[in-house]
């Protein structure tokens, strides 16, 4: 290691390090941005909406209520802006491809579960290589956002339910699961997973998670599982 270089350390039992199920957040975890904030910029509302997003991710606001409030501000926005935002603003987080494709190549299952929107999550999940995508549906009428999302909202409880449901369906013990996210709505699934990781997370999440990544990219989750770089799939 070079002098002054920072790195992440995971302290865990040697046995059972490699996981069979990955459940991952999308915004600011698998991608580098918060999609609703970027979408808001096309409506000229990014400062207002980004402030609500930040407060919700810090756990200062109820996620479902904050989502409804933000989406309501986007009522009337041309739906074609979604595809433009996806192309111009959404970038995959470094290490995401390697994490998902390596785990799948080794027989693992990978699920993307997002409090964001299917119009972003489905193409992102497909590109990275996830087996399943769960996210909120933006309601659109006559080519414009209505200002609402389909109910029930995918929030903290839904993310936890996906983790538990997937593990049960596959016959996996909770110790065989890995969850990663950055916001307060990710905390229940992070705490329930065999390896729960706060990825460059908000303070409330970083403080409560069993492991956290502050310096490296998502490849740190492969190192944590004891998988050497020579076996990573990119």
What is the fold's blueprint, element by element?
Elements: E1 21-24, H1 35-42, H2 46-57, H3 63-73, H4 80-89, H5 96-105, E2 109-117, H6 118-128, E3 132-136, E4 138-141, E5 144-149, H7 156-170, E6 177-181, H8 187-192, E7 195-199, H9 203-208, E8 211-213, H10 220-224
Parallel strand pairs: 1-2, 1-6, 2-3, 6-7, 7-8
Antiparallel strand pairs: 4-5
Helix pairs in contact: 1-2, 1-4, 2-3
Question: What do you see in this structure?
Answer:
- The chain has 234 residues and is an alpha/beta fold.
- The chain has ten helices and eight strands.
- It has helices at residues 35-42, 46-57, 63-73, 80-89, 96-105, 118-128, 156-170, 187-192, 203-208, 220-224; strands at residues 21-24, 109-117, 132-136, 138-141, 144-149, 177-181, 195-199, 211-213.
- The strands form two sheets. The protein has a six-stranded parallel β-sheet, with helices on both faces. Strands 4-5 form a two-stranded antiparallel ribbon.
- Strand 2 (109-117), helix 6 (118-128) and strand 3 (132-136) form a beta-alpha-beta unit.
- The longest helix is centred in the C-terminal third of the chain and has 15 residues, at 156-170.
- It is globular and about 55 Å long.
* Helix proportion: 40-55%
Cα radius of gyration in angstroms? 17 Å
Annotation field: number of helices: 10
**How would you classify the helix and strand content by structural class?**
alpha/beta
Residue windows where pLDDT falls under 50 for at least 5 positions: none
Q: Order of helices and strands, N to C?
A: EHHHHHEHEEEHEHEHEH
Biggest sheet strand line-up: 3-2-1-6-7-8
What does the average pLDDT come to?
Answer: 95
First-last Cα distance = 25 Å
Shape: globular
Strand-residue fraction? 15-25%
Tell me the major beta sheet.
Answer: 6 strands, parallel
Please report the total strand number as a whole number. 8
């Amino acid at each position: 290691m070079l002098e002054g270089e920072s790195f992440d350390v995971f302290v865990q039992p040697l046995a059972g390090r490699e996981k069979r199920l990955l459940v991952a957040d999308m915004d600011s975890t698998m991608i580098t941005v918060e999609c609703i904030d970027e979408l808001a910029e096309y409506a000229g509302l990014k400062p207002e909406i980004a402030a609500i997003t930040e407060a919700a991710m810090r756990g200062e606001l109820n996620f479902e209520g904050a989502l409804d409030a933000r989406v309501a501000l986007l009522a009337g926005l041309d739906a074609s802006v979604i595809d433009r935002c996806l192309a111009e603003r959404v970038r995959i987080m470094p290490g995401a491809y390697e994490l998902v494709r390596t785990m799948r190549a080794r027989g693992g299952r990978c699920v993307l579960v997002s409090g964001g929107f299917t119009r972003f999550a489905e193409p992102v999940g497909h590109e990275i290589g996830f087996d399943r995508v769960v996210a909120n549906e933006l309601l659109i009428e006559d080519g414009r956002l209505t200002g609402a999302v389909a109910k029930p909202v995918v929030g903290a409880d839904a993310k936890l339910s996906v983790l538990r449901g997937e593990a049960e369906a596959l016959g996996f013990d909770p110790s065989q699961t890995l969850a990663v996210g950055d916001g307060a709505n990710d905390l229940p699934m992070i705490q329930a997973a065999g390896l729960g990781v706060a990825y460059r997370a908000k303070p409330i999440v970083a403080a409560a998670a069993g492991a956290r990544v502050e310096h490296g990219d998502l490849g740190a989750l492969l190192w944590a599982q004891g998988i050497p770089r020579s076996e990573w799939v990119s």
